[in-house]
What we know:
By secondary structure, the protein is of the alpha/beta class. The protein contains twelve helices and eight strands. α2 (about 40-50) packs parallel to α4 (about 65-75), α2 runs antiparallel to α5 (about 75-95) and α6 runs parallel beside α11.
Amino acid sequence: MTSPTPPGCDLDTIVSRTRHLLLDFDGPVCSIFAGLPAAAIADRLRKVFGDHASMPDDVARTADPFEVFAYAATISEDLAARVEAEMTDQELAAVPTAVPTPYVHEVVTACQNSGRSVAVVSNNSDRTVHAYLARHGLDDRISLVIARTSHDPALLKPSPHLITQAVDALDAEPGECALVGDSVTDVKAAHLASVHSIGYANEPGKRERLTEAGAGAIINSLADLALRLRARVADPELLQLSLRTFQGHAFGAPGLTPRP
Ligand SMILES: [Mg+2]
């Protein structure tokens, strides 16, 4: 088993060790709340508490639905279940207006062509992730979805639970897996699960925050990752297949020629 890469390790080193790419959903795959803002969903979740509920100022004002959900779980399991159900409904309503992340399809293709599997590991609901992937033609290209199926927020990232579930389902070693995430919670969860982490710095300030959290590498665009994946083949048998399939074309195509 390969050890997780240390913070600041370069992207090539991580990619060369990665046979299974785990993608966080909101950020690396799409912007799920592009058309239905997260702040509006947080408001809807607060309504589930009822008129008489008093909540701490930070929960009353947060634009992050997950903070509202986490607070609900401190009150009762029943409330957590009702808030989670409403959050799932809202996430599903957001699917039609979600915007794909630039180059995510290229990353998936690069993984397929280089002998790597792709999984989604998400705090968003399992139904939401599946609905999005089907809508965007990714459902038969992504081998595994491990996402929220319970009303227990303690099972979500930064817990390693979902990542470890994915590693087990892939019958993989943690050191063969890398998680691409845009949040500090992704990096923390990856460390706890002993998988590599690639921080996706898709907003100003994230590079610093993800670096500080200990991300193994940082990318600003998924194009960087797609290029590296194409250049480094994980499965030699699949490479031979690709070369035979593309014979006559492969050697002119960037990324299909193996490195020594
Ligand atoms: Mg995210």
